[in-house]
Amino acid sequence: xxxxxAMATYNGEKYxxxxxxxxxxQLGGDDELIISDDHSSDQTQAIIERYMKExxxxxxxxxxxxxxxxxxxxxxxxxxxEIIFLSDQDDIWKPEKVETVKSYYEKNPNIQMIMSDITVVxxxxxxxxxxxxxxxxxxxxVLKNIIKNSYIGCAMSFRKELKVKILPIPRNVPMHDMxxxxxxxxxxxxxxxxxxxxxxxxxxxxxxxxxxxxSWHEKLLWRYQISTLLINSKLKxx
Length: 238
Prior knowledge:
Layout: E1 3-9, H1 16-24, E2 32-37, H2 44-54, E3 58-62, H3 68-76, E4 83-87, E5 92-93, H4 97-107, E6 113-121, E7 127-129, H5 132-136, H6 142-147, E8 156-159, H7 163-166, H8 176-186, E9 190-201, H9 216-236
Parallel strand pairs: 1-2, 1-4, 2-3, 6-9
Antiparallel strand pairs: 4-8, 5-9, 6-7, 6-8
């Protein structure tokens, strides 16, 4: 069961090497780390290029557009292997992450998307939230996650068969991870596992958040839009 990791980067020089090292140490020779960069202005691209020279599994692409969603889409669409993991640029994967998730896929052949729990930490890796699941009330379910999303991309992985259902990622969904989780839910193929498999680092330059700070008007609009998109996606992929 070969693995692809789809990482999105943007001005991530401070923590990027720690994250890449934590990933590569778990990958086999035929696995790959696909990195899409959103036109960083710091040393992010230089760091990635150095890893490329040292490790054939690291592959680098520039985002064809701009923004978090398009950056992840650019990485995802370039993956080749059976299981695709999503990755932020500033977290740390626990050493057992890849093998734990792969074992769940082997035991659950009908599951297309798996998300693990995570430990939220600060800059110095001190725990600030022990369990993201408890913090967000995470569980699978279309209606539940439209009303209150609990999908978080850095903890997600999916089979390559799901790519055709999630791509292209609609630009009017709140975030790429909510879309991926809900598409899997619509196909009754999402599984949330209890293991905490990454240290999810929160700092001043973090792009995504564990809290939803949108207005009620924005939340209502997004719920309507994503409900319509999910129905259309289900009809398209019948």
